[in-house]
Automatic annotation (TrEMBL):
Binding partners and assembly: Interacts with MinD and FtsZ.
Name of protein: Probable septum site-determining protein MinC
Keywords: Cell cycle, Cell division, Septation
Septum formation inhibitor MinC C-terminal domain location: 129-227
Functional note: Cell division inhibitor that blocks the formation of polar Z ring septums. Rapidly oscillates between the poles of the cell to destabilize FtsZ filaments that have formed before they mature into polar Z rings. Prevents FtsZ polymerization.
NCBIfam families registered for this protein in UniProt: minC
Segments forming a coiled coil: none
InterPro entries reported in the protein's UniProt record: CAP/MinC_C, MinC, MinC_C_sf, MinC_N, Septum_form_inhib_MinC_C
Keyword RNA-binding attributed: no
PANTHER family named among the record's database cross-references: SEPTUM SITE-DETERMINING PROTEIN MINC
Recorded name of the encoding gene: minC
Span list, region Disordered: 91-122
Gene3D superfamilies associated with the record: 2.160.20.70, 3.30.70.260
Domain of life: Bacteria
Length: 232
């Protein structure tokens, strides 16, 4: 065995946590894929740049079915970085099997909110951004609230464990309550979002009341419904 050169540092391995989208297909898979296609038509960049985990616990697919499903998602430009609940169906040629993930708010997938875990931590703390959030930027702060002193551009994304406050225009995606906080709010001075989400409930641009566009707006949850109201 060759020893490392004294002039070179040793190889180091570090752990790091990232937030991933979890897709959990339901039967019949063809109908679920059709719903996914409908979501992609309404929000074409929904999966762009996201880490995606495929949870097939509810399907218990055979290996051939799993290969077909992963292939169908790849054909839709949704690369899968890992599998949950695949059991013996996982193996060579498929993404690696994962286990032990900690439940959190995932970016909602198709039209039903993900079930909430029994106990969910509430976020504390705050992050203040003095600069606008540019297109293509993603701000992730699961510890608490995010305040943007400028605007959030189209194609940008903010994921906050608590509330999101935007003192300029909100044109990108705002995902609040990402640590399981149903009391999180989204407030902005100019309302033009691509997508809104609070604690697993989401709304895309096509579902937003046109009379609110361009106005100061407050967004919150009322039970299982997302409410939006202008700020006078």
């Amino acid at each position: 065995m060759q020893t490392p050169s004294p002039s070179r540092p040793p190889i180091r391995f570090r752990g790091r946590s990232f937030m991933a989208v979890v897709l959990a297909p339901s039967a019949p898979v063809a109908d679920w894929l059709a719903d996914l296609d409908a979501l992609a038509r309404r929000s074409p960049a929904f999966f762009a740049g996201r880490a995606v985990i495929l949870d097939v616990t509810g399907l218990a697919p055979g290996r051939d079915d799993l290969i077909d499903l992963v292939g169908a998602l790849r054909a839709r430009d949704i690369p899968i970085m890992g599998l949950e609940g695949a059991g013996g169906a996982a193996g060579d040629g498929l993404p690696p099997a994962l286990s032990g993930g900690r439940p959190a708010e995932t970016i909602p997938t198709p039209d039903d909110p993900a079930p909430a875990p029994a106990e969910r931590p509430k976020a504390t703390g705050s992050l203040v951004l003095d600069q606008p959030v540019r297109s293509g930027q993603a701000i992730l702060f699961p510890e608490g609230d995010v305040t943007v002193m400028g605007s959030v551009a189209s194609g940008a994304e903010i994921i906050a464990g608590g509330s999101i406050h935007v003192y300029g225009a909100l044109r990108g995606r705002a995902i609040a309550g990402a640590s399981g906080n149903a009391n999180a709010r989204i407030v902005c001075r100019r309302f033009e979002p691509e997508l809104l989400a609070i604690d697993g409930l989401y709304r895309i641009a096509d579902d937003i009341d046109p009379s609110l566009i361009g106005r100061p707006v407050h967004v919150w949850l009322d039970g299982d419904a997302m409410r939006t109201s202008p700020i006078d």
